[in-house]
């Protein structure tokens, strides 16, 4: 999770210790320099009629 503090790399050995998902890179772990880029990869969920509005905007 990335927030306004941008602490991803400061907390690699604590909060994000097991947050590695790089199957395409062998040995992507702390012993080999770190696992991830600081992308904003948060997702959302939209339900109900608002979801149709989002779909319409996406299709346009």
Strand-helix topology:
Elements: H1 49-59
Nearest-integer average pLDDT: 72
Number of strands: 0
State the helix count: 1
Structural class: mainly alpha
Oligomer: single chain
CA-to-CA gap between the ends?
30 Å
How many distinct domains? 1
**Rg measurement, Å:** 17 Å
The topology string of helices and strands comes to H
Sheet with most strands: none
User: What spatial form do the alpha-carbon principal axes imply?
Assistant: elongated
**Unreliable sequence segments:** none
Estimate the helix proportion, in percent.
10-25%
Percentage of residues in strands:
under 5%
Please tell me about this protein's structure.
The chain is mainly α and 60 residues long. The protein has one domain (1-60). It has one helix and no strands. The chain has one helix at residues 49-59. It is elongated and about 45 Å long. The chain starts with 48 loop residues before the first helix and ends with a helix.
Brief account:
With 60 residues, the protein is an all-alpha fold. Helix content is 18%, strand content 0%. Keywords: Lipid metabolism, Repeat.
Give the tags:
60 residues, mainly alpha
């Amino acid at each position: 999770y990335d927030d306004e503090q941008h602490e991803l790399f400061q907390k690699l050995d604590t909060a994000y210790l097991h947050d590695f998902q790089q199957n395409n890179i062998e040995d992507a772990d702390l012993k080999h320099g770190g696992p991830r880029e600081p992308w904003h990869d948060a997702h959302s969920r939209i339900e109900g009629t608002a979801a149709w509005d989002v779909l319409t905007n996406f299709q346009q």
